[in-house]
């Protein structure tokens, strides 16, 4: 196997979910070149992945919004990058029309994808020459790893390996030695939100324990929510608008991350940070994080976590310690 094309186009959390698959492929085929097609809006994480040789990043989301000539030209440029290589195998672990079209356009006689009943868009199955086998009952990450391992015939390591390196910030973060706790309260789906009063209760308790609370946001409405929470949590900081890279750097420097089912909380777990993920309407067993001594998911479909449960989970992943000055400086 000399060249592999991996297709996972969006979104941020799904990019993180795909990292263990990259590690699997790199261990199975240490000499192979691995390319990854991802939307330009989500391409930072593939670029940080150790083991990926080239990221092809068409601005598909950007063009859908802008309909601009510059975005269209960038898409054609990405197509040229795609077509200039011949792949031994194309692995589509996204399973919608846009990913299937990418697979079909790639120069390869072997294109792997899910069966129609497992695809986000069933007719995307047209692009594949080989269908992944049944994947059984497992997490989203493990299913992805399992079907590719079975299709390509390499043994699967039961441990998930996240090999990535976030670029260092220009100026060290949190150099004052005070541990930061990032609270990712915002989510694009209203039903996924955790009640504000519960965020305030957790934030106040963490502040009492010596954490400085940091509140990120991604839209004007989310900024208002962050400001409202900060007004009730002593010493809380509403962070400025950040790029994906800047936010990832903050996560990498944090002592604790608590948040809803969002990409940055998944990234926190991948970076080995103490992390607690909160679910209210989706399946925590299927999509959650669960690394013993490091991360835990709470709640489920129709089950909203209580404040005491969240604080107990924080104790489990931190050992009940806010973190020493030396630990915080090292994390910076």
Automatic annotation (TrEMBL):
UniProt catalytic activity: an alpha-Kdo-(2->4)-alpha-Kdo-(2->6)-lipid A + ADP-L-glycero-beta-D-manno-heptose = an L-alpha-D-Hep-(1->5)-[alpha-Kdo-(2->4)]-alpha-Kdo-(2->6)-lipid A + ADP + H(+)
Subcellular location: Cell inner membrane
Record-linked Pfam families: Glyco_transf_9
Residue ranges of the TM segments: none
Keywords of the record: Cell inner membrane, Cell membrane, Glycosyltransferase, Lipopolysaccharide biosynthesis, Membrane, Transferase
Record flagged with keyword Hydrolase: no
UniProt keyword annotation of Cell membrane present: yes
Membrane topology reported for the UniProt record: Peripheral membrane protein
E.C. number: 2.4.99.23
Main subcellular location: membrane
Pathway info: Bacterial outer membrane biogenesis; LPS core biosynthesis
Enzyme class name: transferase
PANTHER family in the cross-refs: LIPOPOLYSACCHARIDE HEPTOSYLTRANSFERASE 1 (PTHR30160:SF19), TETRAACYLDISACCHARIDE 4'-KINASE-RELATED (PTHR30160)
NCBIfam families in the record: heptsyl_trn_I
Protein name, as recorded: Lipopolysaccharide heptosyltransferase 1
Gene that this polypeptide is encoded by: waaC
